[in-house]
Amino acid sequence: MIRYTLAFVLLAALAPATPAQFNFTGKVEKLTKAPSCLPTATHQIRCSEIYLVPDASVDLTKWEGKVTKMTGRVEVATCPAFKVLTAASAGYKLAIKPSGSGANFRIGETVEWKTTGPFLSLMPFLMAAGPGFLPLVNYGCFQIDLLTTLWLQTDVALFGSVRYLLPIPNDTNLIGLTIHGQGVYLVILPTLDVKVINSDCFTIIAK
């Protein structure tokens, strides 16, 4: 939980008298068991340690397995969590999958990052060694560990999407390592718009 300390300190320092609402995007997954830190949680965001508590007006079961755009408030708990107030289909998303005909993330093969976003937006490709938690109000929520984040490159979404191919070194020491990615887009014209969208991840396996 040490990696979440900075986020909680910032939120506590900046919190208004009325709890702020945050916009965030993530793939919704049903919990098999609620965590001890938040027994009311029913779901979590895939590839993260962020738990979700639905408002009475929100049915998260119909969003399971889908990248979902949500609004919510940060729950008071010892683990990262949101009270989900609204849920809708996400227009833009990040997806990480094996490149080519391979169905798994094996050493020596290639992984494809694909991010969709507004036409002509700038899209950086970010990779980290673990999950994180830093809500940014209207800009989204960083779900990867900022302390281990690497910037790979930035591309322009000429047709509303970009791809980045990442070769996995043929190194057995990498087997079992989970890599996290975060989707981000930046629009400069006609008005500035920055959004952090969903995260995704994969675990490297043997050949």
Structure write-up:
This protein starts with a helix and ends with a strand. By secondary structure, it is mostly beta strands. A hairpin with a 5-residue loop joins β9 and β10. The chain has 1 helix and 14 strands. The N terminus is likely disordered. The strands form 4 sheets. It has a 5-stranded mixed beta barrel. The chain has a 4-stranded antiparallel beta sheet with strand order 11-8-13-14, with no helix packed on it. It is globular, with a radius of gyration of 17 Å.
- What structural class should be given to the helix and strand makeup? mainly beta
Low-confidence stretches: 1-18
Strand order of the largest sheet: 1-2-3-5-4
Mean pLDDT: 90
Binned strand content: over 45%
The succession of helices and strands, N to C, reads HEEEEEEEEEEEEEE
Per-chain topology:
Blueprint: H1 5-14, E1 22-30, E2 43-45, E3 51-54, E4 67-74, E5 81-89, E6 94-98, E7 110-116, E8 122-128, E9 131-135, E10 141-144, E11 150-156, E12 161-167, E13 178-187, E14 193-203
Parallel strand pairs: 3-5
Antiparallel strand pairs: 1-2, 1-4, 2-3, 4-5, 6-7, 7-12, 8-11, 8-13, 9-10, 13-14
Q: Outline of this structure?
A:
The protein is 5% helix and 46% strand.
State the main characteristics.
disordered N terminus; 14 strands; mainly beta; 1 helix; 207 residues; single chain; five-stranded mixed barrel
